[in-house]
Amino acid sequence: MGAFVHVSLSLSQTWSAFTDLVCVCVCVIDPVYVWLSLMRVHVCVAEIQCPPHSHYEACGTACPASCAHSTDPLFCALACVESCQCDSGYILSGGDCVPRHQCGCSFLGSYYRTGDQLVTDTCSRRCTCPGGGKNITCNEHQECAIRHGVRDCHTIRTATCSASGDPHYRTFDGLPFDFQGTCRYTLSELCAPAADLTAFRVTVENERRGSTAVSWTRQVRVLVYGYQVQMTRGERGSVQVKAATNLPVTLASGNIRVHHSGSAAVLETDLGLRVSYDWSHYVTVTVPGTYMGSLCGLCGNFNGNVTDEFKSASGEMVSSPVLFGNSWKHGNESCPEEPELPSPQCTSEQRALYSSEQYCGALINATGPFQHCQSSMPSLSAFENCVFDLCASGEALSLCQALGAYALECQGRGIGISDWRNSTGCGKLAHHSRVCALVCVHACLYLCTSVSECACVCESLCVCVYLCVFARVCVCLSLLCVCVCVDSGFRAGLECQENSDYQVCGTSCPASCSRPGFPADCGTPCQEGCQCLDGYVLSAGRCVPPAQCGCLHRGQYRTPGESFWEDEACRSLCVCEPGSGRVRCRADACQEHEACRVVNGRRRCVPSAAVCVATGDPHYRTFDGRRYDFQGACTYVLVTACRGARDAPQFRVETHNREIPGRSVALVDRVAVVVYGHEILLSRDSLGRVKVDGLYANLPWSRAEGGLTVFRAGLYTHVRTDFGLEVGYDLRHHVWVSLHRRFAGRTCGLCGNYNGLPADDYITPNGTLVSSLHAFASSWKANVTEQCEHGCQGGSCPVCEHPQTYSGSQFCGIISHANGPFAACLSRLDPAPYLQDCVYDVCLAQGDRETLCQSLQAFASACQALNVSLSPWRNDSFCGVACPENSHYEVCGERDINRCVSLPTNTSSAPCAEGCFCDHGFRLSGEHCVPSTDCGCVHNGLYLQMGQSVLNQACTERCQCHAGGAVECVPLLCNAGQECGIRNGQMGCHDTFSICVVTGDPHYFSYDGALTHFQGTCEYQVSAVCHNLTLPWFRITTENRNRGNSLVSFIYRVHVGGQPVSLPAFPSLGVSVLVRDGTVVVQVGDNLEVRYDGASTLLLRVAQSYAGTLCGLCGNFNGNPADDKLLPDGQPASNDTHLGNSWRAEGGKAESRESECTDPPPGHRHPLCDVLTADPGPFAQCHWQVDPRHYYTSCVFDTCAYGMDRLTLCRAVGAYAAACALHGFQVSSWRNATDCREFTV
């Protein structure tokens, strides 16, 4: 070891960050280490952190040059010392290193820095460095005196305004009044500016706490000297100044000081302003007499006259506290004004109880703990306020708050009080007779658990929120829970933390890590509250030994181990090293797509956008984080730009919810995004494609002008814009909207207003804030003419009877399992709400595995959005994903690889996605993974799959994609009787009619393109006029029978009108029944044609005049396939069997059971049915007019039921050929391609 030299240096000599006295030992071996003693705690650190414009020297001059003594180094006889020395060109000025030209002044033997002021002995002149001065005179509210080491005209008189309890206000002039508004209000501010008065503003924000009749102060903001200091309920030991700041803190060059005093945070300024808040409900504002007559706000005008206090913000006198309070609502608060309502009234029994000495009577008891204060402080008004609060809430906590507020006011005036807490039950642990009142009526989801304030046991299974109330005033608010009290104390009063105890008269300037000597110069009276034990000091609200103190960095105290961003741009990340008192910083930065912002008082890297979610039944989470459930089954505005967003791109996102029969809940089954003049529709049948302005387009799709892209990544289809809007939908149940913060405070809809305040998200389209969830959500119905229901509300909503069954690890418990596949996410994302939603959905679905998988997927998606790497949570037997041919499942796949056409926007930096991804050597083409050589073409900005044809908007040209990306275009002319337009998402030459096909075992292809599999063996209504009295009426039914296989059925007889006839026949005018090429054709004028091949295929062709008027298994013919599967009462069917059985004709008895066969997975191929979709192939020319995908699905379905039966195959293919023929495409070569020549179909 090397030798050590011990030197003692005073803080003023080294101007370093050492406190009071720093003992320094210089180690003479490399590397250099410094041993220092901080409050008698010795630690070793690697280097000294010097102030700006200075550097560390192990052997520097002990007589540094200063502005006052610039030649000291020349005559210094002292040995060198280890210290910080000014850089070249800089010199000491009052402890700072400054350029020589910034030196200050010498006056009467003392040195003053630039900007310093001094007042002469008689307070007759104020001088400023550099140069200049002016005459001053102390006014009637001031005296010439030295306070805290400064001579000046100091205030003699002060006045205090207070707000306490629910809250009760007392103005500066002493007028008491009550006001229960729940907005942000101006408590006091300078309203009559004067040259010698510093402007300030104090605002308060109030909130409800259980009772809807009263409110309490939850936040106080003080704006002075350009700083905003925020004190918030529950954040004991800290305030927010741009970001959370541990106490104490000094700002504005010492003009603002904030410290911990008793049970409150106290802000003081050099101008005499003092604001305190107890982090619960009690706030005071004290101002010097110099502000007399210059203030306004809820604290009044401070003019000594109580008769003119109710002066509104507009300067008018008003008659009531409510009008007065509402007028001082701060800024453009969107919360509702407080109405004029009668105050809560006490019963005679309540008043008698609460007036006793064990309650509020302690305030007016002549021999009680406040006896010495009653002559100076009006105890009667405090007594009435106390009784009022208890009657309104019934909470023991209200009593303790009311008594505590009075105690602090007494002590603030220097009046002693005795221990009032133990005599009133407000001590550390109080024992009252009490019960638990249920105040949160919600669907029962979990086992009832007690909260910290109340020890209760619930006999039923409910989600409960409890308040501790007195037994005599308890009112049962719900019969859902029966609560039994356990005879143990509840925390209604003051409970001191570890290493502290309660003192009725303790220092109001407690010692802290950064100010260990604070009590020595404390000039304020003692206060009751918790005080650190001897040998302990405050560290951000906790009492710790000095050895466990943290760091002082740039005037702010940091706790040991605390990490923080040093700058406002998140470029320097620092940590307070435990035990050393040193802060170490390193260069760092937020990731891409993140922004440096203050969230919940902490500066951190956060996504540059907020996310709104609708998932499950559905459960909603707004941009501001408010969660709610709403089961409406209509189309709703999820989010739209509003409220001053005219300078930003306009957009609108709507969701359509479909009710799940028998469960009183709904699922999102369609999402529409309106942006940049386009309507983009995502629906359950749009895998691999999207409907843009009514036309289907393959994915990816991009706007020609740029700025808008639709693509698929894993399980989700994304709509992404260039201005920060992105929508994701899994085409099943889960939709999310990510929106840039430029829209903060400028959105509306079910996603809320995006202003950071969850409490005010329930705003209706007319701008009204409502308390009813149902009123809020139903008000955002997008189409007022839509016939639909808004679902259950309140107690009518379904309840999970056995939540514990589904909260275990076999079901939803996997979400929060510490060793489960989501373990890595539990520290980043609170799993509780996802677990709650999962239990509710799975419970109502009676343990349905698909519902469970959907809930788990929602949590997995949220985790991956945070870049959390998840373990594989799916397998073949649990939540497996059926991937198309030539693809595989990945839990974390790259978004932008293996596509036939790349995206115009880079997604490589986005989080990975879960889902199906193409195998090596294959690329994504629409919904299929194809060899690279089979990729399609890009034509006019649209991606076409190999062989796909499209028409231009005038139907004068048809273009087809060929191998190698070549597009061939040929002229086109619509046939007579056809019209050019969009039908079922396809641009084409369409007949002036639509077709429904019933074929096979059987399958129903609706007019709008929906597919239904139904094997009932009865008589069923296929189509009929249901919603029109002017069009010619018709009804078509089919009778289905089994043919050798009980799993399926076929059409046996067709009825038109019900009368048998010989063919050809003409039963009435305009009606003919003929046989053409072995097919029975019924023609009803120009409006209806029915064709039956006598074996397995029925085709209906109806005119467009019937659009929207039909019902039955062929759908409603309104152009929307998503709502074709409706029951006779207009409600959606739960499945195809439910739909088919509901349309059983009169007299039918047999009901179908669900088939064992299901639709093939997306992209599945079957060799017997491939002829339908083959391109090139016999049907290729018909694909653009009649979508072959449903016919292919039905073909595979039939081969499941009948195996490889050739006749079944030929009938399935023949049905598509017949549909093509109705559209003018005569296809004959298909029989040769399928060996169906020998079969008559």
Automatic annotation (TrEMBL):
Pfam families linked to this entry: C8 (PF08742), TIL (PF01826), TILa (PF12714), VWD (PF00094)
Keywords in alphabetical order: Disulfide bond, Glycoprotein, Repeat
Signal peptide from the UniProt entry: none
Biased composition (Basic and acidic residues): 1146-1156
Keyword Oxidoreductase: no
Domain VWFD: 159-336, 610-789, 994-1158
Domain of life from the UniProt record: Eukaryota
This protein's GO CC annotations: extracellular matrix; extracellular space
Region (Disordered): 1125-1162
InterPro entries (UniProt xref): Mucin_vWF_Thrombospondin_sf, Ser_inhib-like_sf, TIL_dom, TILa_dom, VWF/SSPO/ZAN-like_Cys-rich_dom, VWF_dom, VWF_type-D
Gene3D superfamilies with a match to the protein in the record: Laminin
Protein name in the entry: VWFD domain-containing protein
Classification of source organism: Eukaryota, Metazoa, Chordata, Craniata, Vertebrata
